[in-house]
Prior knowledge:
The structure holds two protein chains of two kinds.
Chain A: E1 4-6, E2 10-13, E3 19-25, E4 31-38, E5 42-49, E6 56-57, E7 65-70, E8 73-78, E9 87-94, E10 105-106, E11 110-114
Parallel strand pairs in A: 2-11
Antiparallel strand pairs in A: 1-3, 3-8, 4-5, 4-9, 5-6, 7-8, 9-10, 9-11
Chain B: E1 9-13, E2 18-23, E3 31-38, E4 45-50, E5 53-56, E6 61-64, E7 70-75, E8 84-92, E9 106-111
Parallel strand pairs in B: 1-9
Antiparallel strand pairs in B: 2-7, 3-4, 3-8, 5-6, 6-7, 8-9
Amino acid sequence: xxxxxxxxxxxxxxxxxxxxxxxxxxxxxxxxxxxxxxxxxxxxxxxxxxxxxxxxxxxxxxxxxxxxxxxxxxxxxxxxxxxxxxxxxxxxxxxxxxxxxxxxxxxxxxxxxxx
Amino acid sequence: xxxxxxxxxxxxxxxxxxxxxxxxxxxxxxxxxxxxxxxxxxxxxxxxxxxxxxxxxxxxxxxxxxxxxxxxxxxxxxxxxxxxxxxxxxxxxxxxxxxxxxxxxxxxxxxx
Lengths: 115, 112
């Protein structure tokens, strides 16, 4: 089975702290994604990456950055956390090309609270 | 990117068939229609995908009319465990579905 693992299920941070959310997938997928999910707003794409060291902005990249140094790992970074970044963060991966369905495999999520 | 519109919520009872319709008026030629299911405190999970006509798997059926401007997810004989949020997405196979846009989904509540 495909496994997408997020490093922390629950985090509590203070305003202004630097926050790292780590995600690792074990299926050699090319694409990796970070979403945030808030009540009433559904899932919104923050950043995605289709290859090592490549990244593309999603719909809401402001206040976030990402790093993809290895194919299996995609990190989301909050340089200076703010209270409006309190949310559930979901990492996903998928493979590309050919006749694949583009199926996204999600991790269990990281619930971040910024005080 | 094609935008989708779904009902915010639906109620059903165990054993009934549930049909959730999604509209996607500006779907593009290369777009596929995909549905995901999400339980509380979990990431979404792929249910089914189609391009046109009808697709069926062990979990659901997907009906897509000829104009492809809408689609209907059909869940036969739902159970309490089908209570979840269901998302309809359209995505471009040529880009590897890299920018799938999730809407707010349809919250299905199945009662005894």
